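JOB MANIFEST
job_type = single_chain_structure
chain_count = 1
residues = 258
[input]
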Amino acid sequence: MIVKQSKVILIGAGPGDAELITLKAVKALKIADAILYDALVNPELLDYAKPEAELIFVGKRKGCYAYHQDQINELLVERAKSKGTVIRLKGGDPFIFGRGSEEMQYVAQHGIETQIIPGISSSMSVPALQNIPLTQRGVAESFWVITGTTKDHELSQDVYTAAKSNATVVILMGTAKLSEIVKIFKAESKQELPVAIIQNGTTENEKVGIGTVATIEEIYKTNNLGNPAIIILGEVVNHRGAMLEIAENARLCEAQML
């Protein structure tokens, strides 16, 4: 058997909706000889793979790892050498808290060609599809995207700095630290700052909780929210309610005209 030239392609699978993946990524999936995919990847995307492609689940669920990171790195190299074109498929964008850079460095150090195909990050797409813009003229001039849990399993210190700003703050993987996050924003006298928590964004299982810094913990419990979810803090969250109100008023006006 003649093995193709070894190559690893790092692909962002998008936030969850199978249609939110790039055409370039789909083309790559169709030629892959092996695909290593994570837990947050929509399984429908694997339908693009050719029948003989090897599919390897390397994600984690509820703290249980199918493979540890060093094992994933080794698998990428081994499969690239033995099979040819390997896809590393990760949720969202793999360069935004996805450890994609670490994996590509490891592969490159073994003399294997690498390619990156960016994905649509949940940090921007999930709020957008709920009518929450991260920037809005006269409301928010910038935004932060922060990991809620560092490699040491602690809340990022950047949250303290972000809480002092007027920027929109998006926190990924942060619901386990919600009480700590709320405390930080309360210390900046931002009890009334709007907050949204969106679980399973862009998927059929999406759930949303809207409140303020003062109320969001109770709303999180009442709505039975959990992971995976993102937290958005900022005045831009109010845009969602405004859009719902506009839509409802338009519906009532149309009904009166009938």
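[summary]
Helices lie at 23-31, 69-83, 100-109, 122-128, 158-163, 178-187, 216-222, 238-257.
The chain has two domains: 7-120, 123-242.
exit_status = 0
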